[in-house]
Amino acid sequence: MAAAPGGSAPPAGPGPRLGFSTADSGVGMSGLNPGPAVPMKDHDAIKLFVGQIPRGLDEQDLKPLFEEFGRIYELTVLKDRLTGLHKGCAFLTYCARDSALKAQSALHEQKTLPGMNRPIQVKPAASEGRGEDRKLFVGMLGKQQGEEDVRRLFQPFGHIEECTVLRSPDGTSKGCAFVKFGSQGEAQAAIQSLHGSRTMAGASSSLVVKLADTDRERALRRMQQMAGQLGALQPAPLPLGACGAYTTAILQHQAALLAAAQGPGLGPVAAVAAQMQHVAAFSLIAAPLLPAAANSPQGGGPSTLPGLPAPIGVNGFGPLTPQTNGQPGSDSLYNNGLSPYPAQSPGVADPLQQAYAGMHHYAGPEGCNLFIYHLPQEFGDAELIQTFLPFGAVVSAKVFVDRATNQSKCFGFVSFDNPTSAQTAIQAMNGFQIGMKRLKVQLKRPKDANRPY
DNA sequence: TGTTATT
Prior knowledge:
Layout lengths: L46 E5 L7 H9 L4 E8 L6 E9 L2 H11 L13 E4 L10 E5 L7 H8 L5 E8 L5 E9 L2 H11 L13 E4 L3 H19 L11 H17 L6 H18 L65 H7 L11 E5 L7 H8 L5 E8 L6 E9 L2 H11 L3 E2 L2 E2 L1 E4 L10
Antiparallel strand pairs: 1-3, 1-4, 2-3, 5-7, 5-8, 6-7, 9-11, 9-14, 10-11, 12-13
Helix pairs in contact: 5-7, 6-7
The structure holds one DNA strand.
């Protein structure tokens, strides 16, 4: 024992004598540990949790006990952050994965250290994860990249247990993959180094490397999609009271809380309820905030609105909220008598209903789709709907968002179900001043068109 | 100038 060679420091002389209550079977004489002073650990090494350790034993005391099963990479007794008191347990990582497995099977629940009532615990630390924490989702791959390419990319970070590129039924790559590492540490290292680090050929954005969804997250995702479908097909007839963006924000917050609060074991029904509440909140956004009876001078045009006081604050949607429900003209977005909106013709189906009727369609027919630039930074899809809903049935509205920052790119698309509405919207809204900006509203460029403007 | 995908 006294001659532990190599990097393993010999246990300090006096210290508590180490032994198991069952049998003392020559612990500590096995390992010659030649090699570098700084040990290397295998990529697939396992971090072990060791419990039921007598408080009197420190790392040096414990070392010989565990060295029987192989070279130790790291051994740390857990201490209270504040008091520094020994917590009766430790983390142990062997250089070799195999050593950890041997130690676990030989020691876990098998022996009891002196002075303890319960047998020692030796098992993978919780931080090692039980599968999900070692599995990565990889996005923004090139469509032509296969398993081999992905493996090449991730192989430097550890032992890859699985590597699968997701493909459509016809075999073409969906541009994403799953990679499972031997340990959580390897997975985290890969995330650290690779996420956002490069853009693969043919990808629209930089590489995505993150933990794969858990089963629960996957189920939630599915339900979100289903709820979305339901909402698009059957817009709930909601009371359109005085509910503006602020109310919406509260509802969304509540929905988020509900979703976050669903701990393990929450049934699918409650999850759906949370999702449906979210859908309801979204529906409320569409409460028309615009003056229904505001007869605007159509001939004037937006360019005749110089010096318009900013109707929309840069820090929120305060002015967007209808403060007097149903009272045309007053306290509305356009309290200057220069609203660009045409009167809503009676007899036309509720535009709200129409707006949602086909909302899952991205684009309408040619000539129905608008490209809108110079949107206020805080404009989202909902505000875009609100702004263009008076001109006709909005089939879709989408503000582009930078995926990395979640910030609006200040442009978006609105589609109507007919070209006349689109033209009316252009006439009324192109050049319209909001805050410091003037909207640019024009027909969306067809995919194949080559004109810059 | 319609984006990013979850076995």
